[in-house]
Amino acid sequence: MNYNASIKEFLRTYVKEIQDTNAAIFAGAGLSRPAGHVDWKDLLRDVAEDLQLDIDQEADLIAVAQYHVNEFNGRNKINQVLIDEFTKSVSVTENHKILSQLPIDTYWTTNYDQLIESTLEATGKKVDKKIASENLTYSVPGSDAKVYKMHGDSSLPHDAVLTRDDYEGYDQKREIFSTALRGDLVSKTFLFIGFSFDDPNLSQILSKIRILLNKNTRTHYCFMKKIDINEYKNEEEFLYAEIKQDLKIKDLKRYGIKVLVVDNYSDVTDILHHISSLVKRKNIFVSGSASDYGRWSETQAFEFSTLLSRSLIKSNNNVVSGFGLGIGSCIISGALEELYSSQNNKVEERLKCRPFPQVTTGQISKSELWTKYRQEMLSNVGIAIFIFGNKIDPKMKKVIGASGMNEEFKISIENGVIPIPIGATGFTSNELWQEVMKNFDKYVGIEKLKFLYKDLGDETKTSDELIGTVIKIISQLAKH
């Protein structure tokens, strides 16, 4: 997909903010609607009928909810509507899945459903959910993400923000949410998704931020679907809506919110996939094992593996690897040396290395366990490097190719990971290099990188030259 300059700038900025742990998501009803949940109008449709009103003619939905409370002496029906609508079984959307897998730890939402937190938990993340003001006075230890339910949750319908009374009393009852959101809007870069910006509460907070910071407001982003003439009865209605959208886009600039106009809602999913791909490309899997080093001496192979790992860390990438036979320790030590020499205190984030279990007495066979292990390790990487790749056959007592490396290559391709086999190291990595070169468009798809890949199979290249080529490829992939 070809992106315009505005979206390209957003991708560069937001991916960096994710990597620097400064990114946040603000989700509106538009994120949950494709899953099967209702929007505000459909939520209040029966409520409006009780008042003999046509919800499709009403613009002030907060007033409609308040009218019902006034007429029926309470909000019992509104509470029941919240329970009925937001406890229905729905399907998780692709957008929810992508967002839950990104390393983003701050989520804000005006939605009453539990899709965000449940999808995060499904990916193995521990969620600190903030529904009521009391929840903000403590933190869940070891949490991976905080989800702020700015307007409450369907599990506490009586406390959900929906009526005029609720909005007017927000600063007294939920002031701590406003304070927390102001802090995040100042310190983090938000992506607003599925949000209409018609919420009076958010508008008030954004206004306070603008006045407080003047022109120093942080830039935030939001998606907005371009007005489509096919969705209107006549050209006059279309032109009116087009003018109104243009005015809204210009007005949001006052709050530091840059609008990303898309042709279709499916474009949002494509962009989120692209963000995920770019973020994952900082996580590089190194696959390597060796009992025999071919034309390399053991010392040369160890030095190459160490220098490769050091170079990956030095160029601001993260290393993921198992303890590969023969050279696994060098991958670990090289990364650690670079991290310690640069006084980096994020070792656990930058280096993820775990040994494969050698003995199992459980119900799952060792080979099946290793496959699941490989799938998990490769689930959050964007690039996989392959070096050497051989082992001793215990029966034949001879050197054979590394079947585990072949499996890691296969899993990588299934996950959309870009492979970088260093063919010059020989054995299975050379076989994989030949496979990639024969089907370059399938595995890499960036023609201008082909000459660099060709160098990776050149046995006359020195260790420094091979590693330099790998770093150039990774740098180009990050920009593409």
Plain-language structure description:
The chain is an alpha/beta fold and 480 residues long. Helices cover 49% and strands 14% of the residues. It is built from 23 helices and 14 strands. The chain has helices spanning 5-19, 29-32, 40-43, 45-50, 61-71, 76-86, 94-101, 115-122, 164-168, 170-173, 175-187, 200-213, 235-252, 265-280, 298-314, 328-341, 347-350, 366-377, 403-414, 427-438, 440-443, 450-455, 463-479; strands at residues 23-27, 106-109, 127-130, 145-149, 189-193, 220-225, 257-262, 283-289, 318-322, 351-354, 383-388, 390-393, 398-401, 418-421. The strands form 3 sheets. It has a 7-stranded parallel β-sheet with strand order 3-4-2-1-5-6-7, with helices on both faces. A 5-stranded parallel β-sheet has the order 10-9-8-11-14, sandwiched between helices. Strands 12-13 form a two-stranded antiparallel sheet. β6 (220-225), α13 and β7 (257-262) form a beta-alpha-beta unit. The longest helix is centred in the middle third of the chain and has 18 residues, at 235-252. The radius of gyration is 27 Å and the shape is elongated.
